[in-house]
Amino acid sequence: MRKPSNRQTSSTRVRDRLRSDIFSGHLAPGARVTVGGLAKRYGTSPMPIREALQELQGQGLVTGIPRRGARIRAVDAEFVANVYDLRTAIIGLLLARCVRYITNVDIEEIEAIQAECERVTRNGDVAGILQAHHRFHDRLYRIAHNAEAHSAVERTWPLLHALRSRFGFGPGRHDESNRNHRRLIEALRQRDEALAVQLGQDSSERAKQDLLAMMRGGAISAGAGSARRGAGRPRD
Amino acid sequence: MRKPSNRQTSSTRVRDRLRSDIFSGHLAPGARVTVGGLAKRYGTSPMPIREALQELQGQGLVTGIPRRGARIRAVDAEFVANVYDLRTAIIGLLLARCVRYITNVDIEEIEAIQAECERVTRNGDVAGILQAHHRFHDRLYRIAHNAEAHSAVERTWPLLHALRSRFGFGPGRHDESNRNHRRLIEALRQRDEALAVQLGQDSSERAKQDLLAMMRGGAISAGAGSARRGAGRPRD
DNA sequence: AAGTGGTCTAGACCACCTT
DNA sequence: AGGTGGTCTAGACCACTTA
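Output (structure tokens, whole complex):
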């Protein structure tokens, strides 16, 4: 019963640590990183570094210069807003298609996932909330039968996951999100394409605004159930 | 006059040949490919194969199975339609932002590129047309100041480029495209956001329909007026 | 002209699937 | 248990940027 390295490959380890180092500010925005330097830093050979760098490049976290290494991208408000706007545009496409393909069985399953979302919300476990939320979106967009659009929006998830883990959620944000999900499900049940698209894009926009506010506040609040932290938020 | 050498790396060579082999049908859709097999086929070591595979996976041409190799994706009508729909959605976002950021200098430069588009159209050189067309889009979307959305739509270009090189354009398609470009430029000059978005998305939709029609016909016509066909390979 | 740093080769390792 | 095949290591190669 040896499961020492689960699905944990060296590339993924490097990728996660690299991402963590970017968010923690240990690797400054705009800093140039080299394969050799990172290989020594993480104690591995060039190949996993290249792989991780390429994946993070696909997520927009690093920008590659042809023959001159790579550069850390600043995870600032503009970058986050851009990623969310991209998500919003694609989500509009996906939801329009969902309305055309969705079945009652799909709706039942999505409602079950939504119930799960609301349950973990009461627990207040951020990791669980993120996971359930992700499952909701994944299950929904699968219906759209557009794998390219789906994976394009999926590609932005690791970034948002990491940011939410760090900055948490604003007060009442979870309830708002769940309310939006419920309304979206109702629109899907009615097969109201325009409304579903509108609600989904609104949801995405609200999520963007909430995350941006949390980033402005610099909060590290876990957003967990204990409401006794509410007073000290440096709101602006 | 020297430097025949690089910008051509082994990874890119493998990537291009792999893509070519997929389009030519030499690698059947759904076929499983292995790193070792491709390494022998292309006479190289595993690493460039992995790199090329990963990039093509990012473009949706191959789908990776965690521990079990990769699979060639079928380049059929559904796949092409999906990619175009994704493009259309993102283009809407980009054009809406373009209207907000565009300057008169931008418009002048875009008009110059459009003039180039029309000149190469008269020549009938497909490669030149594709290049000019690409420059038009690239220059335009740069204005939107959303690098993530821009690169997401750029990622779909190599696929469309390859397909157009193989299947060409329908009769009158170039003139229609240029007409749409001119109208789009006019909408941008008026800063009419709704119209610009509408025209841009219409253009994308028309391009999709044209390419799908060409694929249905199985034509290899260069689209330069000589609409001779019938000797073409129906499919491989 | 020397240095820096990305790219590639060949082989070993080991996880997963098959008999 | 054996086979298949992805993943990783260490070092060499070479293009591009410095003095």
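Confidence is low (pLDDT under 50) at residues 1-6, 221-236 of chain B.
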